[in-house]
């Protein structure tokens, strides 16, 4: 039984099929649906049931489920029946697996109907906004359903299902996956979708749509995207895809053979070649020798290609050369240990090759039997003399541009009679022949000849590189360069020639690979003479990488990684040379830091989902600039220090923003990563403080603003790891300067005291700490104290209190008031102070109350949209708190507590003043005065006078 696992959903599924609650729910949108399921359920266990009747019932369920899906989609609401519908769909789909395994092949209509009904029910139970996993699952189910329906000839239903699949594919394509968690699954199901559409269209004789879908798989997107998609597929998926493309190509070839019309044969053969080339494009990069089935599939593709080229040669004679190359490649994959006379396949291939070379009217040397044993044995010196003569004749023809004759002479040298000279001589003959074929522009034959070389040395790979470049096959050429460099007989001069050829052919990706390999060869040379050459190569690599980044369809992630690696490589190179020797590189260093800086700025908008790399680029630019400043012999422009500040701040702020994004996505950073980020913020603050005096005077406010923001970042990150000591120390730095106008400890403190941004900084502190439930507050449970403040023991540091106090002083010192926020912060800090219950804390609290009176005196009449800027509820809170605190002080008055009576008097006087700014203030003042007199008589005696 085929089971469908559904890890994409967290909904609880009904564990029992067709339960009573399900029936009652289904009645809400159609009792016929229930009746059909009731009738079908028992029949599913009996394979010999009335197939036609079951199929009819299943199609009825399909119609009901589809209509139900359309209804709730229009309502834009999720149905409460979704879970039950989804489970029933899974049950029906699994039942199709039972029929598939237990039937004798006559139950295909039932299987198709079960899959269709199961798909439509699962579709009806799909989430209103499906997750990536949900879309992956439903798209795969839709594709399999469409194929099954097409196989039984139900083309109308197949087209309808695949139309639904198209919507799911579009939704999946538009879903974000920044971390690439579903990259493999998305590539797999997308290819399955395209291949399903292709297969169904071909069955319906819609060759245009089938070709379009095939191009989607292999040729409609940029080459890098094609390669990425196909590389993510499993070996089995690629094998199945190749088999489908091969079957379509072979079916066209069979039609060509049956037509008997040479002209039509040539035209249709070209159509077949399009499909066969796509199959070869997918299977060619694979290592087929490890799997016998895959190797046989590749041989089948090559044989069909050879046949297609042969049939298409009536219109293009060059196809005969391609057919011969394909046959030679098939022969090269044959097991040479098999006796030739006993291998019917090998004999057939040779007959096919003979037909090809005869049609192209090849010379006698080509028609002679070839990879065969000879009774004649030559001595090694004799064989060497003969082979040397053949090479001389071949070279004469080559230099006289008689390429065909040259190939014949060189290929004669591959005869078995010369096997005593070893594999190196045989490889040399094949290479010389390939070079002649390259001059003839017979690229397919040249590549096939190179593949026959028994030794895969550097020279052989260089010839393969030349052939690939002439054909415009950049990937093949890049692979040949890599293999050439890894060969034991590699000569660096080959790379220099490859570099020139890559540049002339305008293959930027290939040129980049060659330059990188050239640089790697220089790393083995220890003398300092290579430093200048290495730096030149690094600059070329960086320039070329930037050009590739600007092209459509560029692999940004890989190219950015290359770019940063070689900026860092240049930095390491400069650091490794002596200080006095670095002066000859000073212009290179200047170019490097400016380029890195501009790249980082460009990356902010163009390097999508590469936030960490953008920060790395800014860091690298700053490090290179610092090296430039330390190594240059001339005076540095003050603006250079501003660039250090800009780059350092941009790198740090980028990482802070990235950490916030991860937290918002519930990817909470570890304490270690947060501590690393905090250390970076500290380093950035220190760096900016050091360069502050060196930047131009008109740019210093900008650096001040950076320091303010970095202090906020530091408090935010330190609060995340609950480093409250550092949080408190950071806040106090600004509080001391802001409160007393004292001489600051550093230029950063000067910024806090004089800059208008100080208010915003302290406000950010309070917002961060207010939202952090772990922030310690020195307070006890108090009705006036917000719950969010009560989280710690009385011995905890006054972190939030210090922040609140700082913002109040910043407001007052800078004369920059937001009355609403001022009232909110003042209320909070007074609540904390009064909750302590000590004389000293109350003394501070009444000072803040009196300060509020002064603010109200000056700004209390300001209104906006007919509402006071200093909120009325805050004014009433000040009044009631001052009065209640005065009452509490009087209640504690005793024979020896005259100070409490004086304190109470001060509170009542404060409340009386505050009455002036509250509604019905005069009446409230009279009541407070009367109440104070009565309380004073009761608790303090007649010696204390009432407030004025």
From TrEMBL:
Keywords: Meiosis. InterPro entries: Spo22/ZIP4, Spo22/ZIP4/TEX11. It holds the Pfam family SPO22. The keyword Cytoplasm does not apply. GO terms for biological process: meiotic cell cycle; regulation of synaptonemal complex assembly. This is Protein ZIP4 homolog. It comes from Boletus edulis BED1.
């Amino acid at each position: 039984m085929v089971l469908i696992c559904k890890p994409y959903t967290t909904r609880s599924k009904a564990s029992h099929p067709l339960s009573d609650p399900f029936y009652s729910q289904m009645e809400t949108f159609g009792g016929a649906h229930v009746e059909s399921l009731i009738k079908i359920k028992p029949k599913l266990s009996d394979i010999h049931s009335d197939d036609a009747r079951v199929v009819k019932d299943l199609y009825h369920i399909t119609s009901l489920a589809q209509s139900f899906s359309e209804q709730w989609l229009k309502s834009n609401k999720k149905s409460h029946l979704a879970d039950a519908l989804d489970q029933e769909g899974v049950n029906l789909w699994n039942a199709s697996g039972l029929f598939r395994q237990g039937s004798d092949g006559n139950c295909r209509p039932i299987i198709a109907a079960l899959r269709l009904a199961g798909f439509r029910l699962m579709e009806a139970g799909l989430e209103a906004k499906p997750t990536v996993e949900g879309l992956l699952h439903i798209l795969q189910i839709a594709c399999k359903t469409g194929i099954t329906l097409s196989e039984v000839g139900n083309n109308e239903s197949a087209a309808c299902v695949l139309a639904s699949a198209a919507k799911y594919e579009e939704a999946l394509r538009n879903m974000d996956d920044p971390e690439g968690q579903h990259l493999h699954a998305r590539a797999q199901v997308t290819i399955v979708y395209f291949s399903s559409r292709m297969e169904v269209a071909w069955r319906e004789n819609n060759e245009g749509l089938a070709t379009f879908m095939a191009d989607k798989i292999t040729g409609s997107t940029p080459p890098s995207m094609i390669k990425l998609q196909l590389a993510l597929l499993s070996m089995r998926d690629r094998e199945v895809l190749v088999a489908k493309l091969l079957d379509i190509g072979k079916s066209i070839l069979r039609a060509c053979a049956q037509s008997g019309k040479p002209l039509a044969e040539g035209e249709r053969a070209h159509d077949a070649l399009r499909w066969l080339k796509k199959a070869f494009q997918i299977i060619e990069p694979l290592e087929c020798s490890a799997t016998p089935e895959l190797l046989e599939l590749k041989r089948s593709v090559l044989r069909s290609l050879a046949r297609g080229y042969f049939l298409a040669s009536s219109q293009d004679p060059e196809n005969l050369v391609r057919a011969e190359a394909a046959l030679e490649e098939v022969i090269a994959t044959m097991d040479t240990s098999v006796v030739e006379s006993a291998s019917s396949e090998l004999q057939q291939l040779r007959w096919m090759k003979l037909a090809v070379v005869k049609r192209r009217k090849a010379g006698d040397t080509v028609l002679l039997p070839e990879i065969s044993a000879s009774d004649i044995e030559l001595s090694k010196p004799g064989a060497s003399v003969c082979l040397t003569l053949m090479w001389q004749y071949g070279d004469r023809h080559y230099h006289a541009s008689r390429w065909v004759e040259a190939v014949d002479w060189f290929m004669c040298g591959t005869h078995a009679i010369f096997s005593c000279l070893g594999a190196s001589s045989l490889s040399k003959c094949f290479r010389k022949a390939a070079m002649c074929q390259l001059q003839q522009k017979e690229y397919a034959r040249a590549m096939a000849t190179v593949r026959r070389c028994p030794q895969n040395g550097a020279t052989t790979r260089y010839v393969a590189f030349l052939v690939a470049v002439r054909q415009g096959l950049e990937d093949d050429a890049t692979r040949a360069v890599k293999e050439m460099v890894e060969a034991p007989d590699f000569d660096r001069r080959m790379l220099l020639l490859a570099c020139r050829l890559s540049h002339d052919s305008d293959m930027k990706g290939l040129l980049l690979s060659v330059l990188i390999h050239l640089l790697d060869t220089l790393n083995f040379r220890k003398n300092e003479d290579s430093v200048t050459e290495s730096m030149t190569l690094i600059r070329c690599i960086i320039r070329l990488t930037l050009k590739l980044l600007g092209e459509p369809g560029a692999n940004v992630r890989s190219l950015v990684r290359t770019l940063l690696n070689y900026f860092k490589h240049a930095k390491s190179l400069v650091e490794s040379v002596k200080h006095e020797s670095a002066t000859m590189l000073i212009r290179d260093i200047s170019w490097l830091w400016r380029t890195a800086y501009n790249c980082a700025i460009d990356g902010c908008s163009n390097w999508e989902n590469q936030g960490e790399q953008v920060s790395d680029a800014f860091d690298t630019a700053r490090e290179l600039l610092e090296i430039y400043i330390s190594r240059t012999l001339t005076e540095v422009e003050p603006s250079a220090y501003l660039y250090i500040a800009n780059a350092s701040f941009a790198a740090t702020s980028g990482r802070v923003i990235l950490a916030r994004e991860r937290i918002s996505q519930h990817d909470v950073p570890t304490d270690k990563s947060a501590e690393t980020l905090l250390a970076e913020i500290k380093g950035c603050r220190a760096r900016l403080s050091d360069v502050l005096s060196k930047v131009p005077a008109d740019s210093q406010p900008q650096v001040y603003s950076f320091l303010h923001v970095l202090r906020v970042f530091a408090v935010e990150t330190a609060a995340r790891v609950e480093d409250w000591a550092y949080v408190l120390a950071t806040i106090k730095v600004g509080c001391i300067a802001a409160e007393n106008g004292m001489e600051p400890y550093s230029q950063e403190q000067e910024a806090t005291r004089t800059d208008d941004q100080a208010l915003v900084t302290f406000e950010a502190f309070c917002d961060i700490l207010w939202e952090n439930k772990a922030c310690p507050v020195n307070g006890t449970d108090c009705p006036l104290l917000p719950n969010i403040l009560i989280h710690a023991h009385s011995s905890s540091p006054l972190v939030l209190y210090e922040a609140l106090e700082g913002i109040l002083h910043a407001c007052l010192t800078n004369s920059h008031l937001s009355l609403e926020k001022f009232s909110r912060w003042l209320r909070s800090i007074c609540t904390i102070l009064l909750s302590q219950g000590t004389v000293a804390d109350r003394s501070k609290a009444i000072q803040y109350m009196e300060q509020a009176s002064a603010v109200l005196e000056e700004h209390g009449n300001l209104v906006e949209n007919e509402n006071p800027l200093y909120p009325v509820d805050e004014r009433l809170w000040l009044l009631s708190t001052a009065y209640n605190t005065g009452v509490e002080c009087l209640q504690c008055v005793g024979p020896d507590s005259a100070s409490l009576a004086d304190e109470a008097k001060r509170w009542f006087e404060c409340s009386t003043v505050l009455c002036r700014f509250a509604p019905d203030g005069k009446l409230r003042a009279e009541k407070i005065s009367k109440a104070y007199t009565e309380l004073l008589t009761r608790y303090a005696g007649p010696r204390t006078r009432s407030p004025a």
